[in-house]
Protein: Gamma-glutamylcyclotransferase
Organism: Paracoccus amoyensis
Amino acid sequence: MLEFTDEEKREVIDYYLGQSPEGTEVRFAQKVYAESVIGHTHAVWDIHASDGRWWVITNPTNLYSQEQFPNLDLAITFHMGLCLRIPRNDVKQVDVESVRPFTSVLHAIGQCEAALAQANDPGAFRAIGVRCRENLLAFVHAAQDAYDWPEQDLPQRSNFKLWVERIFDAFLSGADNRERRRLIKTTLKETWDYVNWLTHSQSGKWMDAEVATNAVSHAIGMATSICVRHLRGVPDQCPACESHRLFPEEGLDPNNPEVIFERPLCSECGWAGDAAPVGERSEEEIAQFITREGENSDECGVMKTPLKEVLGKRPR
C-alpha cells in the first residue's frame, strides 16, 4: 500500500460518491499505484463499494469498473491513452533502426558546419567538399536501410544518382507528385555535382565551401522530411477534416522509455494518426519522464468480454 493523506482519501471518496447513485457506500479505499508520465502523476485507488469494485485514477480523475478492467494496467492504458502509455507488461520490442540513420546524417551535417568555421585554405575547402559528399552518400545509405527494397536490379550502394531516382520514385510516386519529384531529384543531383567539383578544386574559396555546406543541409533536410513522412505513413492532410495543419505529438512507452514516439495530430479536429518510433532519449531525459510507485506484477490482463456497452456510473 502506498502512503497517502486523509485529505487525498477524502477527495477520492467524495469524487466516487459524487459519481454514484444515492445510497452507495464505500467500504474500503486504498491507494495501490502511482505513475508519473512527463511530469504528471496519476494515482490509482482500489475502491470497494456497495455496488462493486472500481479503479479511481487521478489527474484527471475518472473511475473504471473492475468488472470491465480486471487488470490495473488495462485501466491505466485507457486512462492515459494508448499512444502516450503502453502497458508495462507489454513485452513488444520496438525498432528504431529505420529512424536512427537519418538522425546520424543530420548530426554529421552539424559537424560539417562546425568544420566550415575553421576552414581557411584551399585544402580545408576541399575537405569540406569531401565531408559534404560523405553526407550525401550517408543519406542514400540511410534511405536504403530504412526501407524494404525489392532485391531485383538494385543499384550499387553508393551510386548516388541512381539511388536518388529509386528513392523518390518510391516515396513520391504518382502523377500528382511529378513536380515534387523533379524538384528534389534535381536539387540533390546538382548538389552532388557541386560538392564533387569542390572536392577536386584547386581554386576553391571559402564561399564555395559555404555554398556546398548550405546546399547539402538544405537538400538533405528536404529529402529526409519526405522520407520520414513516407516511412511513418503521415498523410498530406487530415483524413477527417482535410486540414493541412498536422503537427507531430510526442508520446512515451514506459516499457521502452528510451524510445521517442510521435504521431501526426490535426490541430483543427483533433484527429491522431498511428504512433511511430522516431528517435532515442538519453538516460537523463528518461529519468525526468517517468517514475513509479507500487509493486511490479507479471500478471497479464485479458479482456474476456468485449466492451460493447458502458457499465460505468449513471447520473443519480
